[in-house]
Please model this.
Amino acid sequence: MPISPEALIFYPAAAMLICAALAVIMVRNPVHAALSLVVCFFASAVLWMLLEAEFLGIALVLVYVGAVMVLFLFVVMMLDINVAVLREGFVRRAPFAALAAIIMTGLLVWAVWFERLGLPEFAKPALRPEGYSNTTEIGKVMYTEYVYPFEIASVILLVGIVAAIALTLRRRGGTKHQDPAQQVKVRREDRIRLVKVEAEKNH
Amino acid sequence: MEMTFSTPDMWPVLPEIFLLGMACIILIADLFFDESRRIWTHWLTLGALAGTAWLLGGQMGDPAVTTFGGMYVADTMARVLKLVAVAATAVVLIYSQDYLKSREIYQGEYYVLMLTALLGIMVMISGSNFVSLYLGLELQSLSIYALVALRRNDGVASEAGMKYFVLGAFASGLLLYGMSLLYGMSGTLDIAELARWTASADLNAGLVMALGFVVAGLAFKLGAVPFHMWIPDVYDGAPTAVTVFIGSAPKLASFALFMRLLVDGMQDLHDAWQPLLAGLALLSMGIGAIVAIAQSSLKRMLAYSTISHVGFLLLGILAGTEQGYQAAMYYAITYVIMATAGFGMILLLARAGFEADRIDDFAGLNRRSPWFALMMLFVMFGMAGVPPFVGFYAKFAVIWAALDAGYLWLAVAAVIFSVVSAYYYLRVVKVMYFDEPAGELLRLQAAADARTVMSVNAGLILLLGVFPGTLMSLCVAAIG
Model:
């Protein structure tokens, strides 16, 4: 069977995605975990490219890798998480976790054996014609067909802002800060007090 | 591709647009109110709810319409559920005002987040597309996560918020995975088109898996066993003013989510999802009834009672008949009435430094405030399903629907668990009327408006029980 160029890209990228995803939850160092997540995003961006969803692929790299993960790394570095404490009892609980995982996987495989998935019913999607632009297509429907979910998504972002501020803004008493208006309005009399000192009488 | 796009019909969406606009206005206006004038935020919020209810009421008789290219549907079921959700939110706000003041969470954000959560509920109720349903769910959930953790100096509340957030994200993942599998197979996100596709689809393993994930995600949001672990901790840990909200209006949205996804979208796969729901219903009724007996905290007890009620609600849905869906809708609405009154009573009894959330705190309530002891008795009898209170008729209708669908064993189990759960509801009544209070006699000191609303709210439990026909005919008109 000849290997198509897509398969040549797909399988390494998919393998990289799975390995990196495992690394996110397995490595000891939280910074390494965050970096593995970056690799995950890259690998999924490659998969999206293969699906001809180039806009989403690029947005994933720009937004998640470029902005979200950098912020995330900052947070991880600042928090100074003691991983050793979090991982306490891992070895003791590992057999139970493994047992649960094996049962779950077994049930899934039993329920969904490959032939019963009904895969042949779903034809491979045809390649788009040349000159097809995913970005244009998204742009066409984003503010027309999908304007309703788009607006709701914007409300969700607003709620995110309100919630983040409500949960973290703390007005502490006794902080020292400058009020420029007060500084400008200040008069000479407020700052300088002329004291008439009685001349000392020498006896 | 030729552009064929016409401006969507905004008229059916007017209640949501008005609510969102008012939420934004209140968010800004509240910045100019200090603590002494926060009452203005309170009245503005109630005004926003009244306006939304008025707009919804004006559309009540209209025929069912879809707009935004099928993303949004306004049918009678949606309008009735939304009206109840708006009313429940208003009642919660009236109950919680004094509580908020004494708990340092008397903030504008509380009101704004309540409104956005309600907006999410309304979007879910009217969603007829995977995307709008999911976004409505996230809008509601995100607002509630923040509300739970709003009292930031309280470790228990923060823990509850964190738990709810992590488990809620997990459930959203399950639901999304199921939806994406369905999308992959059917090639559509639209519920109506999904229904057309499932009519001719054969039930292969992939479809079963997708259905399993969707049902698991839905069950989690509704709080059905075995996806109920978050309910007691979140109900108990959240400030009572938030608990009363979580326990009421979102249940309507979860019911609507079941109706839109399973009934509107996959009615033809009914044979596949019916046994899943039967298992969930049996476990929920059982665990909810048995574990609640061991609780000494009233909030935790009511949390387990919620789980039990969810089981009864599922009985109606799994029946798969119009009569069953009507019974389930009736159950959801009456449960919301009972839950607002039940949690509301804790709010009314609480004061600075005293949560009133243990069952013992209600000891001797009859001697202190006989009228409100009577109201609490209405709530407890209603939840237990004692005739002539409304809970009896609601339970009767869903059990009847399950019997009709041929689930005799489930109906028998429902009756047995209903009797078991009567024990802990009646225990509260016993404590109120026959137990001696341990400490000093504290009278119920709530504001006049909260007392009046509570009397109406608890009175409805009796009134709707004596005259079940009015609300039932509304449910029949909504689904039929």
